[in-house]
Design goal:
The radius of gyration is 25 Å and the shape is globular. It is of the alpha+beta class. The strands form six sheets. It has a seven-stranded antiparallel beta sheet with strand order 16-14-1-2-19-20-21. Strands 10-11-12-13-15 form a five-stranded antiparallel beta sheet, covered by helices on one side.
């Protein structure tokens, strides 16, 4: 079959695939350079907009109710009693440095709520919990108590739950016709790193270790009663009981876990885990590993930009990359050729991301200063991480809900400016990515470099018990950072449009300006053409059709 026929068939066929949304990485406090606990999250969605959630702290009277709005379709699901006290929440971090992320994995369809009476979907569960809890353990109890009382309205889910002292992974799935949910939570060791990406990851654990393992009381009995597990309780695997792991889910989901682990592991470990991902072995990856070195904030940010570089799944070398070596593929990810099913790689960094973050929870600093949410919109690979403290009480205009949406362009919305930059680069990737990296790196290095002095200033205000001015400074800096990043990307979008107009590349002078002759006229651009392998590919597909006689 010819190349172009293959492309047409791929576009015409839609193959059902596993859930392929979000990615989470976790690093314990003894696994990081600065002693912070870090969590990453990418909200990968074709229907969500890149803005920053915010809830204000408050005191509430008995009888007050809290509306529950489904995070997926925005529908009203019901009401639950409001907590007596709620906390300030910035994105997925609250004022006590508690952070919650998630990835969805579906699981057995019959375990999704079939009664229609459950109120709490996974998204509303996250934000209600952030409004109410101070610690990860408290969050686990609150989340599980809430779904037991009000029902769980989502499918299989893995949650990252971390505070300034410890990090946990919790997995949850519904009970079908029964109210509530099945769940298990495992503490990640302080010196370990962990990851999950749309596949359940908790397998056999020490169920007698009550300090580091928690689970619902009917977990084993329910699984046995309904035929999801046979054997001794101590051999139970949550991940294998409630989800079928096939070659598609291993490659597109656990592949992202491997892409993180492999950067901090031995070659032998890398090889063994790749064999699981590539369906060459049935020995799964561990839930967590001890990294070969401590991770920095930049390590976590860089890993959220991963496209399987320098690996067997490298995305820039096959024909799907096009002539400009793009590590992006359009959906659907599965396609058929001659009756066989193939896949595009599903990397950590992806074009449909709405927003993403790397959080830092630091026990050596007071909560208002210790918790930082490094937040970005759109594709993590081409956007900028902006530091927002968990004590921020005013959302900057550039990331404020309502400043544009998925159908409404706004020139002051960070989401739209980063999309403008990224979507120019997707089809001319190897040409534009260096221009993007220069602006991205300059901003992130500036923001990171300013933390020490800024935090000295904030700490002085905290020690003086001047919380009003502390919050004011945090809000002012957050607004300035969001504006600077958004303005810089608007300028970058203009620059890319001009420099790469019509498939050429404008020349630059030694000062970084567009080059002109001595009379002010623009110089002839560089006519870049295509790489030799692309010309070779054209001739292989067309024969003598384009041959000059």
């Amino acid at each position: 079959m010819k190349f172009y026929q293959t492309i047409l068939l791929a576009a015409a066929i839609s193959i059902p695939s596993a859930a392929e949304a979000c990615t989470n990485f976790i690093a314990g406090k003894k696994a990081t350079v600065d002693g912070s606990i870090m969590v990453t999250y990418a909200d990968d969605s074709h229907t969500r907009f890149g803005d920053l959630f915010h809830a204000t702290r408050g005191k509430h009277l008995p009888g007050e109710m809290r509306r529950v709005i489904d995070w997926g379709d925005n529908s009203y699901r019901g009401e639950i009693p409001q907590a007596a006290e709620t906390f300030n929440v910035v994105g997925n971090m609250n004022e006590h440095q508690l952070v919650i992320g998630e990835t969805t994995w579906g699981g057995h369809p019959e375990l999704e709520d079939t009664t229609g009476n459950s109120i709490l979907d996974y998204g509303s569960l996250i934000y209600i919990t952030l409004e109410r809890c101070r610690t990860a353990r408290e969050a686990i109890k609150t989340m599980t108590d809430l779904v037991a009382e009000y029902g769980y309205a989502s499918t299989g889910e893995t949650f990252s739950i971390a505070d300034k002292n410890e990090a946990w992974v919790m997995e949850m799935i519904g009970k079908g016709t029964e109210k509530g949910a099945l769940w298990i939570a495992v503490r990640i060791p302080d010196d370990a790193i962990c990851a999950h990406a749309n596949e359940p990851r908790i397998r056999k654990v020490n169920y007698k270790d009550k300090e580091n393992v928690m689970y619902c009381k009917d977990l084993f009995s329910f699984a046995k009663k309904h035929g999801y597990f046979k054997g001794k309780d101590e051999d139970f695997s949550f991940a294998d009981a409630f989800k079928v792991h096939n070659s598609a889910t291993r490659r597109s989901c656990d592949g992202r876990v491997w892409s993180f682990f492999r950067r901090f592991a031995t070659p032998e470990e890398d090889k063994a885990w790749f064999e699981w991902v590539n369906a060459d072995s049935d020995v799964p990856m561990p839930l967590y590993i001890i990294p070969d070195r401590k991770l920095s904030l930049k390590d976590m940010q860089d890993r959220m930009r991963d496209h399987y570089e320098d690996s067997p799944y490298e995305m820039t070398n096959d024909p799907g990359a096009g002539p400009n070596k793009s590590p992006y593929r359009n959906r659907p990810n599965r396609y058929q050729v001659d009756g066989k099913t193939y896949t595009h790689e599903r990397a950590v960094a992806t074009q449909q991301t709405a927003w993403h973050f790397v959080s830092q929870s630091r026990a050596d600093l007071p909560d208002p200063i210790g918790g930082v949410l490094w937040f970005g919109t759109d594709d993590a690979n081409t956007s900028v991480y902006m530091p927002f403290y968990c004590s921020m009480t005013e959302v900057p205009e550039e990331v404020r809900p309502g400043n544009g949406d998925l159908y409404t362009f706004s020139p002051t919305a960070n989401f739209w400016m980063t999309n403008w930059v990224a979507n120019q680069a997707y089809h001319r990737y190897d040409l534009m990515i260096d221009d993007i990296r220069k602006v991205q790196s300059r901003l992130e290095e500036k923001f990171a470099g300013a933390r020490e002095e800024k935090e000295k200033e904030l700490l002085a205000l905290y020690n003086a018990n001047d919380m009003e001015n502390l919050e004011k400074r945090v809000n002012e800096e957050g607004a300035a950072i969001a504006k600077e990043a958004t303005d810089a990307y608007r300028d970058l979008a203009h620059f890319l449009l001009i420099r790469y107009l019509d498939g050429n590349r404008k020349k630059m002078d030694e000062n970084g300006n567009f080059a002109r002759n001595r009379h002010g006229k623009p110089l002839a651009p560089d006519y870049l053409g295509y790489p030799q392998d692309f010309y070779d590919h054209i001739v292989r597909q067309t024969g003598d059709h384009l041959l000059l006689k």
